[in-house]
Amino acid sequence: MKKVLLATAIASLTAIQSHAGTVTTDGQDIVLSTKGGLSAKTTDGNFAFKIGGRAMLDYNSYDGVMNKAGDTTGSDLFFRRARIEMGGKAYDWSYYFSYNLTGGGSIEEVRTTYEGLGQMAHLTFGQQGESFGLEDTGSSKWFTAIEESMPSNAFDTGNSVGVKLHGANNAITYSLGAYKSAIDSNNDMDTAVTGRFVYRPLNDENGLIHLGVGATHRNGVDARYHALLGVRGGESKTANSISAELDNTTGTRDDYNVELAARFGSFHAMAEYFDGQIDPDSGAGKVKANGYYVQAGYVLTGEQRGYKNATGSFDSIKPHGDLGAWEVFARYDNLDVSDSTGAATIAANKANSWTAGVNWYVNPMVKVALNYVDAKTDQPINGEDNGQAVVGRLQVAF
Amino acid sequence: MKKVLLATAIASLTAIQSHAGTVTTDGQDIVLSTKGGLSAKTTDGNFAFKIGGRAMLDYNSYDGVMNKAGDTTGSDLFFRRARIEMGGKAYDWSYYFSYNLTGGGSIEEVRTTYEGLGQMAHLTFGQQGESFGLEDTGSSKWFTAIEESMPSNAFDTGNSVGVKLHGANNAITYSLGAYKSAIDSNNDMDTAVTGRFVYRPLNDENGLIHLGVGATHRNGVDARYHALLGVRGGESKTANSISAELDNTTGTRDDYNVELAARFGSFHAMAEYFDGQIDPDSGAGKVKANGYYVQAGYVLTGEQRGYKNATGSFDSIKPHGDLGAWEVFARYDNLDVSDSTGAATIAANKANSWTAGVNWYVNPMVKVALNYVDAKTDQPINGEDNGQAVVGRLQVAF
Amino acid sequence: MKKVLLATAIASLTAIQSHAGTVTTDGQDIVLSTKGGLSAKTTDGNFAFKIGGRAMLDYNSYDGVMNKAGDTTGSDLFFRRARIEMGGKAYDWSYYFSYNLTGGGSIEEVRTTYEGLGQMAHLTFGQQGESFGLEDTGSSKWFTAIEESMPSNAFDTGNSVGVKLHGANNAITYSLGAYKSAIDSNNDMDTAVTGRFVYRPLNDENGLIHLGVGATHRNGVDARYHALLGVRGGESKTANSISAELDNTTGTRDDYNVELAARFGSFHAMAEYFDGQIDPDSGAGKVKANGYYVQAGYVLTGEQRGYKNATGSFDSIKPHGDLGAWEVFARYDNLDVSDSTGAATIAANKANSWTAGVNWYVNPMVKVALNYVDAKTDQPINGEDNGQAVVGRLQVAF
Predict the structure, then answer these.
(1) N or C: where does chain A have the smaller number of CB atoms within 10 Å of the terminal CB?
(2) Cα(A147)–Cα(B126) distance, rounded to whole angstroms?
(3) CB contact under 8 A, C21 and B27
């Protein structure tokens, strides 16, 4: 009887194989996975490949000071981001490609990391985030609000081509990098140097406390601080900004920031303060800016906001139940460019905004967000000194 | 004896595995497939991923009224389309990315569909076809002729960013969508609303009869109807068009169409009529156009042209034999913009063309097509009122 | 006892499957592989798919005649190339897509090959390399020096849209193709015809000797020969060139070359001579150029430089040991445009350069290169007639 069972078991295995076709490898065992994208990794950890992408379809409706056309309602429906992403590794080297499909196509990131020195000393080469600011260091997929705060926007270093030394353990995360910022009149590179240090006095099942500081020194950059007033539709073609600028001038820019964040269960909060100034390469005057934001959020369905020690930044919320995860949050932003001197052109000396919203993490691939934004400026732009916006997003990330 | 056989069977299984390497997953079972591209789906139907692409290499040789340079032979060899395409799903949500590699890169489609309401009520968000017209709703990979008809070209809505409700069963296909068409002077969105309804009185092993109607209402669009005269090489830089236009004016456009199609065995036929007019946002006059085409095709090797209920459109021909599938077809096009009034600039009041051709579906990935086009206009353009073209295509789709 | 063992064996197989998830196919057996990218092929050889890419991050530091800004040090850090690449096959047809992510995105290659006539007669359609010159026919991933020689640069045909007949066995490699070179004033295609023939009198375990000749005839092309003086950072915006040009004129260009190469164990050497002239389509004068380079390299760690009969070109070095493969090389370049006549604008009649460098093939995915370049011109450009450069590269290819 047992023999018959065994024979049947083997026969059925064979039958399945002949009907369905087998998948084998040319060497090491592979684990394959799809959650909307596709990944493959060898079980010995030597090789890996992953392909995915993201698309964020945004709707903006906004009026008052947010709309360049004056006190009428502006609106837009557009892709805030759409990218194809690939990553992989061979032994101690990993890589990541992220290509923007919007705006005619551009490189978002192309970088490779040497991991052979261990978790405390990774070396990343290529176009990459500089890791300045808590909000900006996190993935755009998992910002709590649809848009970054005004100070994060104004002090954003963007992605740059360079090299970064970085590392992390449970208690600290650090990064120090040098990047190309411009080419000068001798055809020589101008550089930016950016560093960040994060300390976590608490980081276990009881909760998370995150303290961070960062600084960046940048040569040959535009003499301007600039932030949109909460909406992105149409960018500066249709939406107003708070900004201070020494026109057509480059300068040396020095910015620093302080970060504070915490997570206890489903509650999370974060705040950052930024301060900086730009000394023009020629002519008089300075451009100065400072700002801060404070944000708190709560996941109604009990999940916890993710956090990555490796980057010292918040990450995704993975829904547990069939109805997804639901999160509410509020944020207050403040940005001030009023200390700028000389011939600086200023649109609004000071601005602040309130943002409140709800996020629905439908499944691991889909997120829906709805935000309300109320922004004020200290002086009218085109006759308006306050404005409101409703912003919606449908995000697919795989 | 049996025990030895069993032991041998197991030993040989083990031997194969140790030589070749196994492929497993981190969770649900996966079915992998390659037919030139690559796809993976979990057997529980919850997750899927697919990557592929298409390239169409076209040769055009054309003279007479088709050539802007007058009665000489123009020619071009170019990529009509080259795209990378990715799709996938997670639970009730699917997505599709299609990126144009030609012309410096652009988004062809980035869309996500909520399928949780069943086949009769899908909701698709993002950049997508509007589903106006039978020919235009089908995939460009499986047009019978190399180029769409002149009226399909003139009334093509293109792909737009918006939301579409759509559904289908064996008898009907419908779609209704709202899309961004432009941004007005208040920075507010102009919209287009497009609907289509298809009824199939016959749709079984005896044959297919397809009846359809569609309409689109579009604000803030260019006050122009325009169709190339059969060739695409060099586009409007080198090839003439039939067109009527109120220069530098936008307007409100209202178009409708009627569709009729049938398939009996290897025979298939389709016809469409289009009619529309544009009321300018300022100034006098109207731009009006109407047109139709009639097409019939036959697959000599006995295969049947595919048809998708979900979109109410024709699809691929899958070759059965080693020599591929061979198809012949003929089409008559007519387009008339002569009813346009006011200061409309008109190049050719009326045009018609005959297209005849042969398609060779070499294998599931490769298609070769050769078309002959004979076009006439009611009035000469640059001294010519008729022209002929030979158009060839090599298509790879995976 | 044996029965128990068998039962245990089957039970454990089943257990692994239920924990990890199985991967099967919808038809033929598939072999999957990842070495940083991903490939899948059916075991019957009918279908295949591969996705990968390459990124080359270059640092240039250069002075003297190489720098347009005069005798100061110029520098740049930039992506020399960043591409996503896909390939596959269905029966006798294969395809290859390579898309440049740099410069806003462009097609590097989109081609399909009919392989049904055997190794001696492949037909490749689409945008492809024309196979003119030994160095240029090889992959940019496996050039020995970071940049091609000056004559290879000046006589590079680039990638073109057309059709190429090509084949190879152990002793010979040939190619003959026709390509679109321009569109003339009648909107008719101008063409280029390019051929190459390689003979290998020795090609076995004892060594390799490669003899080759090539020629190209090109209509409607720019009347110019041009080569950068060893560095690419900033291209012609910041770096000087040797060039001769009849301004704003097109012409008919006729170039030929002779190739000589050898490989014995870890030693490899190659040399090419190029000669060409351009007759302008209108006006007097001619643009003429000739040049050569000689290069020798040695792999210190004992590996052999790869060579592909199919293309008649050198290929990658695959490191054997844990420390990777190390290679040293030197090259002498010479380019002369002094025989140009008429109103030709000339920047440097003659130029030569020495390049020496070391390559570290870290693993199958990563290559690091460091080159020193010393270039001289026969007449000063901006007061300088010689210059030096240090060029570094970090390459990821998967």
Answers:
(1) N
(2) 19
(3) yes
Name the helix (H) or strand (E) containing C194: strand C189-204
How far apart, in Å, are the Cα atoms of C278 and each of C196, C224, C251?
Answer: 20, 8, 6
Contacts of residue A28, defined as CB under 8 A and 6 or more positions apart, other chains included, come to A42, A43, A44, A46, A47, B21
Q: How far apart are CA A89 and CA C53, in angstroms?
A: 12
Nearest residue to B259 (alpha-carbon basis) of B149, B337, B349: B149
Query: How far, in Å, CA of C267 to CA of C300, rounded?
Result: 9
In degrees and rounded to multiples of 5, residue B388 shows phi and psi of -130, 150
Tens-digit pLDDT string for chain C (398 aa):
455 545 444 444 444 444 589 999 999 999 999 999 999 999 999 999 999 999 999 999 999 999 999 889 999 999 999 999 999 999 999 999 999 999 999 999 999 999 999 999 999 999 999 999 999 999 999 999 999 999 999 999 999 999 999 999 999 999 999 999 999 999 999 999 999 999 999 999 999 999 999 999 999 999 999 999 989 988 889 999 999 999 999 999 999 999 999 999 999 999 999 999 999 999 999 999 999 999 999 999 999 999 999 999 999 999 999 999 999 999 999 999 999 999 889 989 999 999 999 999 999 999 999 999 999 999 999 899 999 999 999 999 99
Cα–Cα distance list, B221 to A41, A137, B247, B349, C190 (Å): 50, 41, 12, 21, 38
Q: Which of residues 221-240 of B touch C (CB under 8 A)?
A: 234, 238-239
Q: Is B141 exposed, middle or buried (0-12, 13-18, 19+ CB in 10 A)?
A: middle
Q: Do C23 and B20 touch (CB under 8 A)?
A: no
CA dihedral over C180, C183, C187, C191, signed as positive or negative: negative
- CA dist C264 and C143 (Å) reads 18
Give chain B positions within 8 Å (CB) of A55: 95, 97, 110, 112, 126
Q: How long, in residues, is chain A?
A: 398
Query: What is the token pair recorded at C48?
Result: 């295949």
Q: Is the dihedral of CA B383, B385, B390, B395 positive or negative?
A: positive
DSSP conformation letters of A264-324: ETTEEEEEEEEEEEEEESSSS--EEEEEEEEEEEEETTS----EETTTTEE------STT-
Task: Classify strands C366-381 and A350-361 as parallel, antiparallel or unpaired.
Answer: unpaired
| Residue labelled with tokens 């042209």 | B305
Closest CA to A160 of A175, A142, A145: A175
Whether C212 contacts C258, CB under 8 Å: yes
Per-residue model confidence (pLDDT) at position C20: 84
Assess A120–C contact: CB distance below 8 Å, yes or no.
no
ipTM of model: 0.93
Q: How far is C251 from chain A (nearest CA, A)?
A: 33
List, as ranges, residues 31-60 from B with C-beta within 8 Å of C. 31-38, 51, 53, 55, 57
Q: Which residues of C touch B101 (CB under 8 A)?
A: 97, 99, 105, 107, 110
Measured on CA atoms in the order A341, A344, A349, A353, is the torsion positive or negative? negative
Cβ atoms of C133 and C253 closer than 8 Å? no
A20 at C interface, C-beta within 8 A? yes
Asked if A4 has any chain C CB less than 8 Å from its own CB, the reply is no
- In chain C, which among 314-343 make CB contacts under 8 A with chain A? none
Q: To the nearest 10°, the Cα dihedral for A259, A196, A398, A34?
A: -120
Tokens of C360: 């570290």
The 3-state DSSP class for residue B211 equals strand
Pull the structure tokens for residue A329: 């949050």
